[in-house]
Design goal:
Blueprint: E1 2-7, H1 16-27, E2 31-36, H2 42-49, E3 53-57, H3 63-79, E4 85-89, H4 91-95, H5 99-102, E5 107-109, H6 116-125, E6 136-138, H7 161-166, E7 175-178, E8 181-182, H8 193-199, E9 208-209, H9 212-225, E10 231-234, H10 245-257, E11 262-265, H11 273-282, E12 284-288, H12 296-302, H13 309-321, E13 325-332, H14 339-352, E14 356-361, H15 369-376, H16 382-386, H17 401-418, H18 425-431, H19 437-456, H20 465-482
Parallel strand pairs: 1-2, 1-3, 3-4, 4-5, 7-10, 10-11, 11-12, 12-13, 13-14
Antiparallel strand pairs: 5-6, 8-9
Helix pairs in contact: 9-10, 10-11, 14-17, 17-19
Length: about 475
C-alpha cells in the first residue's frame, strides 16, 4: 500500500512521530512518502504518488493549513471521481476529535498511532471499516478504546529516508534528532500534556523510557548510515528528571560509544548540580529551559509551573557553571497580564544571562486549563479558541489593539535588548512605540537565527552554500507560518 504522510513544515526538528509511523509501515513492506504543506507540493504529490492513504499529522496551531489542504484534496477527488482514505493524527484530533466530522475524515487517531497504523492499513486493504481499532475514532463514532505504547524498545528506528527524499539537503544539516522517552508528568496549565495525562490515565505509566542500549544503538546506526552527524538533539519534553540508574548508564555509554555534543530540553527543577555535572561530562553543550514569565506568582498560580524565581535563577547559574549553553522562551499576552508584566518578564529574563532568549505570544490550546480560564473570564471568545494558531498578535480581548501591537514588536526587539547593557533600556521602550513591524521582524529573525546557530547549534550549519540557503529558506517559511 502507498501511504502519504503530511506535515506543515520542517526546521531543526524533524517530524519524529511521522518518521516513526513510516518506519513501522516499511517494516510491513508498505511504501511511504512525505508531503510538507509549506512547500506547496501537496496536490502535486497526490497526483504524482497516487496514495491509498493520506495520513495528516496536525497540531491545533496549524490546523487551518490542514483544513485548506484537505479541502483542495476533496475538491480534486470529487472532480475526478476518485477516493482516498484520509486519516488525521497528532495533537489536534487528540484534543479536538470533532475535526473528524468537520473535515468529513475517514478516521482520527487519538494519541499514539504506533499500533493503530498497521491495523488501519490492513482494514483498507481488505475493504473493511475502521471501527474498534484502539486509539482510532472512525466515522459515526464518538469513543474509542485508549492505549499507550509501553515497550518503546519494540519500535523500529525512525525512518529518516522519508525526510531526505523530500528534502535531500537535510543530510548536510549536521543535526539528528532522537526521542529517549515519551510522556510528561508536569501539569502546566497552558500545555496539552496535563489534558493528555487525563485522557490516558488508565493506560499505564505516562512517562516511558527506551533502554539506554536501544537508544545508543539507534544513534550509532544513524551516525553510520546518515552522515554527516555533528550534533545530537534529544527531543523529549524533559530529557532527564533526576539522577538515577538510567542516567548513570546513559552517561557512561554515550561518552564511550558516541561522544558527540548534544542538546536537550530540561526544566529548571531538574537542572540540579548533579544532573548538570553528569550531562556535561557526557557531552551536553546546550539545553532549553523555558522561563514562560518573570512573575513568580503568575508562573505558579496561573501557569502551574511550580518553579520559584530562586529555582529558575539557580538552574541557569548551574548550567553556566558546567559550560552548558542555555536557550529559553518566555510568553507574552498571558490572560490578565499588562504591558508592565511583560517588561517585568523581560528584565527577569535579561538578568538570567541566557545565551538565546525568545519571546512568543501566548497561543490558547483547546481543553487546557489556562484556555478554559480565559474563556470563563471572558478574555477569550470560544470560537476564536477553536481557530487559534501561531500568531504574532494576541487573540485575547483583554488587550487593546495598541497593546497587541506593542507585544508583537516586543517579541522581535526583546531578544536584541536582552543582550545590550541596561543603558539602552530607554531606547527599547521608545522603539516599541514605532510601528516598524516588518523591519523589527527581519531584525529579530536574523538576530535569533544567528544566536541559535552560533550558541546553541554551532556544529550543524550545512558546509555548503546550497544547504545553507535551503535551511535559511525553511526558517523564513516557518516565520511566515507564525505571522
Amino acid at each position: 500500500m502507498k501511504i502519504l504522510f503530511v506535515c506543515t513544515s520542517m526546521f531543526l526538528s524533524e517530524p519524529i512521530g511521522l518518521m516513526q509511523l513510516s518506519a513501522i509501515c516499511k517494516t510491513a513492506h508498505h511504501d511511504t512518502r512525505l508531503a510538507v504543506l509549506n512547500r506547496g507540493n501537496f496536490l502535486e504529490e497526490i497526483l504524482r504518488y497516487e496514495p491509498d492513504l493520506v495520513a495528516y499529522s496536525a497540531m491545533t496551531v496549524n490546523i487551518n493549513l490542514f483544513k485548506e489542504a484537505d479541502a483542495k484534496l476533496r475538491r480534486y477527488l470529487t472532480a475526478n471521481n476518485k477516493s482516498v482514505v484520509r486519516v488525521m493524527g497528532g495533537a489536534h484530533p487528540t484534543y479536538c476529535p470533532d475535526i473528524l466530522d468537520e473535515c468529513d475524515l475517514d478516521a482520527v487517531c487519538i494519541g499514539e498511532g504506533d499500533n493503530a497504523i498497521l491495523e488501519i492499513v490492513s482494514r483498507i486493504e481488505n475493504k473493511q471499516n475502521l471501527l474498534n481499532i484502539p486509539n482510532v475514532m472512525a466515522k459515526n463514532t464518538k469513543h474509542c478504546k485508549k492505549e499507550l505504547i509501553q515497550e518503546l524498545d519494540f519500535l523500529p528506528f525512525i525512518d529518516r529516508d522519508i525526510i531526505y527524499r523530500t528534502a535531500p539537503y537535510y543530510k548536510s544539516f549536521g543535526l539528528r534528532s532522537f526521542l529517549a522517552s515519551r510522556g510528561c508528568p508536569y501539569k502546566c496549565s497552558y500545555c496539552f500534556n496535563h489534558v493528555y495525562n487525563k485522557i490516558f490515565e488508565s493506560c499505564g505509566p505516562i512517562v516511558r523510557r527506551r533502554s539506554v542500549d536501544h537508544l545508543i544503538a539507534e544513534i550509532k546506526y544513524v551516525i553510520k548510515e546518515f552522515p554527516p552527524v555533528r550534533y545530537i538533539r534529544f527531543a523529549d519534553d524533559t530529557f532527564v528528571h533526576k539522577v538515577d540508574k538510567w542516567l548513570e548508564e546513559f552517561v557512561a555509554k554515550y561518552k564511550k560509544e558516541v561522544g558527540l555534543p548534544f542538546y536537550c530540553l530540561m526544566r529548571s527543577n531538574t537542572m540540579t548540580e548533579d544532573v548538570a555535572r553528569m550531562l556535561s561530562s557526557a557531552g551536553c553543550k546546550a539545553v532549553s529551559m523555558s522561563v514562560e514569565t518573570g512573575n513568580e506568582k503568575v508562573r505558579n498560580d496561573v501557569l502551574k509551573r511550580a518553579l520559584s524565581d530562586e529555582v529558575v535563577r539557580k538552574s541557569f547559574a548551574i548550567a553556566r557553571k558546567y559550560k552548558i549553553k542555555t536557550y529559553g522562551n518566555t510568553m507574552l499576552g498571558l490572560p490578565g497580564q499588562s504591558l508592565e508584566h511583560e517588561f517585568q518578564s523581560f528584565l527577569f529574563v535579561k538578568s538570567l544571562g541566557l545565551d538565546v532568549q525568545t519571546f512568543t505570544i501566548y497561543t490558547p490550546a483547546p481543553q487546557t486549563d489556562l484556555a478554559e480560564y480565559a474563556v470563563k473570564n471572558e478574555m477569550l471568545d470560544s470560537m476564536k479558541l477553536a481557530e487559534a494558531g501561531y500568531t504574532k498578535k494576541s487573540i485575547l480581548n483583554c488587550f487593546t489593539n495598541e497593546e497587541k501591537g506593542i507585544q508583537a514588536r516586543f517579541i522581535n526587539l526583546a531578544p536584541v535588548f536582552c543582550n545590550l547593557p541596561n543603558v539602552f533600556l530607554p531606547v527599547f521602550k521608545v522603539l516599541l512605540k514605532f510601528k516598524l513591524d516588518k523591519i523589527y521582524s527581519i531584525l529579530g529573525s536574523l538576530f535569533i537565527s544567528y544566536r541559535l546557530a552560533s550558541r546553541i547549534f554551532p556544529y550543524v550549519i550545512p558546509r555548503n552554500a546550497r544547504g545553507f540557503y535551503a535551511i535559511l529558506k525553511d526558517y523564513f517559511w516557518l516565520r511566515r507560518l507564525e505571522s
